[in-house]
Design goal:
The chain has helices at residues 44-57, 74-84, 94-100, 107-115, 142-154; strands at residues 3-9, 12-18, 23-28, 39-40, 92-93, 128-129. Strands 3-2-1-4 form a four-stranded mixed beta sheet, covered by helices on one side. It has a two-stranded parallel ribbon with strand order 5-6. The chain is built from five helices and six strands. Helices cover 34% and strands 17% of the residues. It is globular and about 45 Å long. It has two domains: 3-57; 74-154, Arc Repressor Mutant, subunit A (Orthogonal Bundle). By secondary structure, the chain is an alpha/beta fold. Helix 2 (74-84) crosses helix 4 (107-115) and helix 3 crosses helix 4.
């Protein structure tokens, strides 16, 4: 059974989804959500996820300790696992992630996988920037990406 619950946070409205075992999605809600065929129910796991997310947004948490099961291709999962290894307060370029996963010519594919990350913030795709150091693409918008990076920069332990 899938469960989803919607929360108002410091960064706006988000939806967190889980499958009974692990977190499967974290979405930024930019408009009214259509009713879905997913039970809206706040589970123990969803409560823990929002608790950890709020601690992160308050500058009190630098990493997440949640079971995760993002759905994607093997390549995407490889990229997302590499994203989880980027330390709090640091960034990597798409090319650097490509090298980390052993395919240095795959920076565009890394960008596409980054774009498809279903568990934003917890799988920190906001920590990936362009090779020139510029902020590029983010599901929550570049303003939010900059805000998250600044939050991390200002709260490094």
């Amino acid at each position: 059974m899938k469960y989803i619950f919607y929360y108002n946070t410091k960064i706006g409205r988000i939806g967190i989804e889980e499958n009974g075992v692990a977190i499967t999605r974290l979405d930024f809600i930019h408009k009214d959500v259509q009713e879905e065929i997913i039970e809206k129910h706040e589970t123990v796991l969803l409560k823990e996820a929002i608790k950890q997310l709020n601690e992160y947004l308050d500058g009190k948490r630098t990493s997440f300790d949640l079971p995760l099961e993002p759905k994607g291709t093997e390549f995407q999962k490889k990229v997302w696992n590499a994203l989880k290894e980027i330390p709090f307060g640091e960034t990597r370029s798409y090319g650097e992630i490509a090298k980390i996963i052993g395919n240095e010519k795959a920076s565009r594919a890394v960008g596409m996988a980054n774009n498809k990350n279903p568990i934003a913030i917890i799988v920190p795709c906001h920590r990936v920037i362009g090779a020139n150091g510029k902020l590029v693409g983010y599901a929550g918008g570049l303003d939010l990406k900059e805000k998250l990076l600044n939050l991390e920069k200002n709260n490094e332990k």
